[in-house]
Amino acid sequence: MIPALLPKALYSPKIINKEKLESKEPCIYIANHTSLLDAVLLSIYLPKNAVFVANTEIAVKYAWAMKGKEVIAVDPMNPYSIRGMLKVLKSGKSLVIFPEGRITVTNNLMKMYSGVTYLSLKTGAKLIPIALNGGEKAKKLTYLEGKVPTQWFPEVSLFVGDAFNLPEMEGATMRQKKEMGTHIIYRKLQNLLFESRMPKQVHLAEMFRQRVKEAPDLEIVEEMKVQSKKDDAKQNKKKKKQGKEVFTKLTLKDLWRKILGLSIAIDNQILQDRVGVLLPTSIANMTTIYALFHSGKTPALLNFSMDVSTLTSCLETGSINVIITSRSFVEKGKLQPLIDGCSKKAEIVYLEDIVSNINAFTKSQVLLQENKKVTSKAGDLILFTSGSEGTPKGVVLSHENIYANVQQARLMIDLTKEEKILNALPMFHSLGLILVFLSTLCHVPTVLVPSPLMYKAIPELAYDLKATILVGTSTFLSAYGRYANPYDFFKLRLAICGGEKLQEHVYQNWVDKFGIRICEGYGLTETAPLLSLQTPMLYKKGSVGCLVPGVKHQLEKVEGIEEGGKLKVQAPNLMKGYLLHETGFVEAPEWFDTGDVVTVDDWGFVTIQGRAKQFVKIGGEMVSLAVVEEYAKSALGVDDVVAVGLSDKRKGEKIELVTTSSDVTIQMVRDYWREKGINPLSLPAKIHTFKTIPILGSGKVNKVEIKKQLEKINE
Prior knowledge:
Mean pLDDT: 92
CATH superfamily of the domain at 204-220 and 250-414 and 427-443: ANL, N-terminal domain
CATH class of the domain at 204-220 and 250-414 and 427-443: Alpha Beta
CATH architecture of the domain at 204-220 and 250-414 and 427-443: 3-Layer(aba) Sandwich
Number of strands: 33
Largest sheet: 9 strands, mixed
Helix content: 25-40%
Strand content: 15-25%
Distance between the termini: 86 Å
CATH topology of the domain at 204-220 and 250-414 and 427-443: Rossmann fold
Shape: globular
Strand order of the largest sheet: 9-8-17-16-18-19-20-21-22
Radius of gyration: 28 Å
Structural class: alpha/beta
């Protein structure tokens, strides 16, 4: 009794949905395994006759902690261990099992053994899932010392989910049933962990303050500086001698103090609630966003790669009449014409001027505030869609939306202090932005690079700084792969492609050159952005992985398309709504139409068939432009091919191709179609050679611009 009462007194565990633990029939309690504390905490709340299943080594070593409880010691490598567990269930007692068979060393769910699946299938026992949180931070009791911030007596919780039974899976072999059943259990625990980690209210600045409190001295961010030509001339000799001068490094505490100082200065200078931010991927941008959050304001991140008319249209759409930018950035990026155009719609405030107002009194206020809870109202965050399909829309994301996506990503990717994210994506792009929040809210060090177009520098940075995670579009990953030395990514364990379809030649080059299998993800600006992701645990080539925890989906049939349907989602990371030009705010529907046609298999793997708008109707049949592009690449032997649908008087619609290669002909395409027996309705009518393929700042192909150019050519 004493071993159980002691942790209850020391850790004050919280249990949510305790009533769901009750079961009239023998059942199997399943939980994730965070620390040596887990079994003791469970023993406090579970029925007294519940029998615990433990690894032989752990059962012997910590027998004193489970005194008075029945424990079965099992060896995961011994298939006969299952017999003792079957006897327990048949005797009318319940089992308590950690399906992972070990305490986590990744700060995430690890692989699961099929024993629990077999037991449930064999006996019909229902499964009651329990999400454990906090134990991973327990000093001396976790296996994550040095990987996550630890402390004596952290807050711990038990979150009980709904009981469930595994499906019967008629016609499947026992091996197939065990594989599918174990996958179902894994996904159930993933979803329950997500649910358990979502607070009722979220303020991202307050969440960040709490992370600072846990690990104030953690070096959280490094920033690559880009010198102007004048600075470059002055520091050239220094740089050659020692490369460290090109980086700025900050701990969590340093970053928090910068945020507080800037927040105070912003409060004294900017009255508007909605503030445009026009900055590169940098500490300055990260600090500005959090400072605006701390002040209760709504940052609207602006795409500096847009032309003046498009960007001023965004200002009008978002009712933005003040912009924070930097003189240094404007000078280095040669953005003065863009700023001049924006100044007609909004006041331009330079970060250098705001910072110059931070004085000794401000710094004393920072010291007084740094440990105080953030009490300002939580504003929103506004991003603008890329404009790849028309006029950009403002996407309004709440703090809850963003935090939900952080927790969803955290459950798909193993994240600890030992990782290092190399982030070169622009922060006005939702993928680049979520990496910033993932880093700052999950204690994961990151390196910020101001431009993804530094194709030679980025592989060198990955090598020099020992980056372990790199995220980019297929276009960017292709370029990095082309310029990198085979050893540059020696520390990289995870390369993720998002924002556009991963091209087969890019995937194969990374496998052949670096031995790295790129994991493809899928998402939308409207979902903050992650919706699905391949992982080493959940991988199927050609898919974009499984939906992240917490996302529900429906498929709506599309006329003329036999497999799959248009994907609709309901999710906590789904935006509050759109800001539309000359219309204002439009609330997001309960079920959001992604506009993508997908298939979802029995395991939950999502495969993109194409954008609904990227299908053309020819001769009464729906033809996928994405499929046509893949065929055309094979026919022409080139990688940069874009298929575009255009109106046609005779057929209704037609397909034309664009490439940068000059030594290709439409006859090559026709011959390939005939040789392979491809549906002649999908045969492109023409092929055009462009000097360059128009690309958006996010790295996506600018199909709107290509279509405009083709329509002009065809006039």
